[in-house]
Amino acid sequence: MSKSFDVVVIGAGPGGYIAAIRAAQLGFSVACIDEWTNSKGGPAPGGTCTNVGCIPSKALLQSSEHYEQAAHHFGEHGISVTGLSLDLAKMIGRKNTVVKQNNDGILFLFKKNKVSFFHGRGAFAAAVAGGYQIAVAGSAPQTLLAKQVIVATGSRAHELPGTPFDEQQVLSNEGALALHVVPKRLGLIGAGVIGLEMGSVWRRLGATVTVLEGLPTFLGAVDEQIAKEAKKAFDKQGLKIELGVKVGAISMSTDGVSIAYTNAKGESQQLDVDKLIVSIGRVANTVGLNAQAVGLKLDERGAVVVDDECRTNLPGVWAVGDVVRGPMLAHKAEEEGVAVAERMAGQHGHVNFNTIPWVIYTSPEIAWVGQTEQQLKAAGRAYKAGTFPFLANGRARALGDTTGMVKMLADAATDEILGVHIVGPMASELIAECVVAMAFRASSEDLARICHAHPSLSEATKEAALAVDKRTLNF
Ligand code: FAD
Ligand code: NAI
Description:
Bound molecules: flavin-adenine dinucleotide, 1,4-dihydronicotinamide adenine dinucleotide
Number of strands: 21
Strand content: 25-35%
Number of helices: 13
Structural class: alpha/beta
Shape: globular
């Protein structure tokens, strides 16, 4: 006899596990299937985000930033450090512990919310009267019966054609987060989010890092002024970023990896490195889902086709997160998971795609929400801009980190905030206030009139709002 559930979720990344919990809260009987396996053969729910993405990368970014501070910046505070050394095995071990705490946390949450968890691969077996049969292949193979299904199978790293990941010399995010020795020479292809975050980790720990980027513009999706400021900071740190390159043949030997490329001037170049990280984007992961068994529609790149509300072409089958269109971000996946569970319950689940924040956790951090100045110009929208540099912020001076600025864009006529762009310390936290403001359709005047604690970095946001009306008080 198959076990029956109101809802079966395939994938326990941020999209899937959050959807499962919300559906259980709403009174559905819920199962969640995930195949991620830890080094001991046990389940490791949490998906890319928890195992080889958001969480471990932030753990290593924090550890490597501490190392860099101790090595180069404690002196400014009158603290001298002698005999500083790096125990990489311990640093990686700490990262693994943080990951495990998150895996265990999700298993606990499943228990607390009465979500039945199945460790193994889930695949469509057949459409049947009133739902779908889902086969679970794992240590205990079985078939579940689902009235409704949520596909949340995530994404995987894009390979360079002809250069598969071996995770020894040519690394995806997985290998990049698990190196046992700091490479002397590290190459990265792709100066996107992973390229900058992983490049920063290994540069701080001592690698000479070169990033090869195909596009002629640095961080093309980011507000130009902010991207320019960030690039200046990365250049100063010694993170070498070559823009407008065309990558050619890549060859591996016992000495390392050689990358032939043409630079922006059209000259042939060669980069020799010990390890190469390829971070050129990610692709939706529908391998093993057996979508064809039920006729689930995928696009030409393998992503599940959904409407604005995450409905697929099949009745009762939904899809959320990296496996569908839209930004590949954990919080976007979570919001879609919640909204789908609520729609299943007849509620009006909603995701506001205009207020999804982005954060790049480098130093300085880069964070933004809403539209960039170049997008507003292209759309012909009349806007006002206000900027405020951290150089003029007391807390930033006290912290010893005055890089960057807050930039606010507001509608010229109504003053509604259209976008906020931050490069600087704790941008990841500062952006939250701006997301709230935009979600409530606040004007820059609203933010400018709200009392902000002193001294705090958030005063730079208030001052940027004042700058929209050309009346900063501290600059
Ligand atoms: P995933 O997290 O990919 O989870 C999918 C799960 O489904 C996996 O556990 C997989 O094993 C499982 N699965 C797949 N197929 C099956 C099947 N057939 N049966 C059973 N299980 C299956 N985003 C942020 O917002 N902030 C960050 O700081 C951030 N940092 C990142 C750093 C790196 C290095 C990377 C690679 C990504 C980062 N991301 C970050 C992106 C974030 O990880 C993804 O957007 C997020 O994980 C997507 O969630 P998801 O639930 O859609 O998919
Ligand atoms: P990305 O899309 O951010 O960046 C890829 C970069 O590679 C782009 O700049 C692109 O122009 C370049 N590129 C593509 N093909 C190339 C080629 N052949 N040669 C040279 N350059 C090439 O993708 P990335 O960094 O792999 O990350 C994937 C996704 O994971 C991100 O888009 C983001 O959604 C998510 N992520 C989010 C993080 C966060 O929120 N802090 C951190 C890391 C990843």
